[in-house]
Amino acid sequence: MKIIHLANHAQNVGNGIVNMMVDLACMQARAGHDVTVASAGGGHEGLLAQQGVRHVLLAQSPRPSRVPAMVAGFHRLVARYDPDVVHAHMITGALIARLSFLPRRFALVTTVHNEFQKSATLMGVGDRVVAVSEAVAVAMARRGISRARLAVVGNGTIGTPRLASTPVPHEPQLAHPCIVTVAGMYERKGIRDLLQAFALLRERVPDAVLYLVGDGPDRAAMETLAQQLGVAEHAHFTGFVADPRAYLAQADVFTLASHAEPGALVLCEAREAGRAIVGTQVGGIPEMLDDGEAGLLVPPANPVELAQALGLLLTDRVAHAALMARSRQNCERFSVQRVREDYQLVYEHALASRQPRRFATIATTANLAAPEIAVRDAVPRKTTL
């Protein structure tokens, strides 16, 4: 199968959309597919080349003045590689592919990574629209996307080619007891709530330390808040870390305090590391934590309950050990191999609906008669096709 992935860039800056796309493209190439990533580049080109994925420069911008050049570049790309599937991971690429005036032989697949954005509705232009969690699928259906065109493919990072040849770092050495978050410094990531919770927590656990791994436009404001709360000496802003496994491996508690979170890759990584986890009950977080079996769930924007959950895990050894054990269970569903297999099913369904003689298999042809087709969610054994 010939596949083209579209994204605005391929920068190695911790962007979950890019990381997921790179993992998928590499795994598809390993499986023998002809895979191209078209983007403005920026960091992952070397890895893609090593994995047998070609990278083609295709600048993508939301500016209307750039549309003619982008469409023309996309036409050249399609003419050169004649793809079976074009997979758009960001809105610009989805619209370029859909607005193309060429006779369309390829199937267009779109993945909704950031459903919380109003513009995410535009991802509904795909022949098949993939949600990274059931919560996202429900939200997209409410926006008018037919459930017959929606599929759920949960994110996964275990076995990622991005880190496969790199040993887990031993540095830095963290102070204990410690809480770690790996998140962009954005208001929606709940960093403000986490700092307020940490200030409350230190009244109960005065030697607790917080590590905030990530960067973003709100970092300066969050550092100022840490000063105002009197926790600046104990709340360490590390900036972006390309390989955060050393922080995850040493975390006494990992937390993600987001206000909106479709399907955070870092939760896969924290569970692979066997961490005790506290997450907010929003978006795809409950699904990724087995509805609270693999991590404590607290309401979003509630520093008091967040502090209580963190305090429980830092002071109750039995609860901490039990949650660490449950965190490791059922982690095979977060493998990049499972993600690739699920997307293969999505592609086959999309292609069968457009070109059944060439691509349909007995299984896909039979299932196309169903009024609603659902690809595997994050738990492979619960597949319904």
TrEMBL record:
Annotated Gene3D superfamilies: Glycogen Phosphorylase B
Annotated Glycosyltransferase subfamily 4-like N-terminal domain residues: 15-156
On the tree of life, the source organism's domain of life is Bacteria
Which residues, if any, are the signal sequence? none
The cross-references to Pfam families, in alphabetical order and at most eight, read: Glyco_trans_1_4, Glyco_transf_4
What the entry lists under InterPro entries is as follows: Glyco_trans_4-like_N
Q: What is this protein called?
A: Glycosyltransferase family 4 protein
